[in-house]
Amino acid sequence: MAPAITLAADAPTLSAANTGFMLICSALVLIMTPGLAFFYGGMVRVKSTLNMLMMSFISMGIVTILWVLYGFSLAFGTDSGGIIGWSSDYVGLSGIGITQLWDGYTIPIYVFAVFQLMFAIITPALISGAVADRVKFTGWALFVALWATVVYFPVAHWVWGAGGWAFELGVIDFAGGTAVHINAGAAALGVILVIGKRVGFKRDPMRPHSLPLVMLGAGLLWFGWFGFNAGSWLGNDDGVGALMFINTQIATAAAMLAWLAYEKIRHGAFTTLGAASGAVAGLVAITPSGGAVSPLGAIAVGVVAGLLCAMAVGLKYKFGYDDSLDVVGVHLVGGVVGSLLIGFLATGGGQSDVAGLFYGGGLDQFWKQCAGVFAVLAYSLVASAVLAFLIDKTIGMRVSEDDEIAGIDQAEHAETAYDFSGGGGGASFSAAPSPAQGTPAKKVDA
């Protein structure tokens, strides 16, 4: 995120161009959450499709209300000890004038608040892919509310809030490598260590039911990510946003190609799932680093992330943790890679004059990046595991084994994704009717 600096010698005035640009970027970031829902929804088995979609969509409802009530104040209010913020004017967004500018910038506070809201929405949604097929919807909804409050809002303050300890230390995170991706990836690992594996993990086939849906989701994520990344400079006055935009495209392309090359060498085929996953790995890795590296550096970031994330997704089989849709392998590993590479590849000619090791800056920035990366990782991992444990011991976090086998869509939502009952094609899966319909259709595992 852009540092809180004044853009000009005189006090800034509201810029219609920057304001309009940031509103567009906010909408682009919001579309990433439905894109993520499609991406995840296509990767699960057919009997879990709707639940996977809903786990992302519910975040748009819950986090929005919490952000208005107190989340924005905790994340971006007046600093307290470098740990948390608080400003009474931000509670309920009630003490903010419609033309009141975000400090040092040319956009209204409302615009900054809504842009940051979209980040807060997608971060817990990212976690959902790790717990696919087995989590109660009520338990998940409560987890989202508690996790946003206890983990995301404070971490956002650490990294981006004026006075936050990581911000003051000089940790570079342009658009969310630590606050979003490492945060979500570590949380995913913490939760799955508590709730355990899916029924049939490493025994039953659990292939994606709709690769076209996965590709659609990946395309929406790639599209929306330009707002996510380029918008994080909060304006278009000095070209840094443009650098971030082009680096986003370059790193994503490089990571996709690297993942596909690894996949071909290791498994003998170029898969659509590999292309989609590689693209997301590149998007994740360039998110913290794209304002600090050159376009050639972006290629390096993408290649390293594509290869390491492709290798990392198999670790769940080696170590026995059931990360359903590879949130740990892509978001945690990709976020760590992108954040730490800043310490080597920062040119000193982008978002700041900080240079990495390869550009004569020594290892000072690398150690700062390590501090930010591992502090966020540790806090999110432990706090998320504790929250999941408490929910599991109170209202319950997992559906029953019978419901998981029969299909979580039917158990939790009384719906199924596809209705083939009137198609006459002899399909083996038929949808259960709504309460207003007639005799229930047969439930068949898929």
Automatic annotation (TrEMBL):
Q: Does the keyword Ribonucleoprotein apply?
A: no
Name of the featured protein: Ammonium transporter
Q: Which NCBIfam families match?
A: amt
User: Which intervals hold domain Ammonium transporter AmtB-like?
Assistant: 21-418
Q: How does it sit in the membrane?
A: Multi-pass membrane protein
Instruction: Give the lineage.
Output: Bacteria, Bacillati, Actinomycetota, Actinomycetes, Kitasatosporales
Chief localization: membrane
Family under the similarity heading: Belongs to the ammonia transporter channel (TC 1.A.11.2) family.
Q: Does the keyword Transcription regulation apply?
A: no
Q: Where in the cell is it found?
A: Cell membrane; Membrane
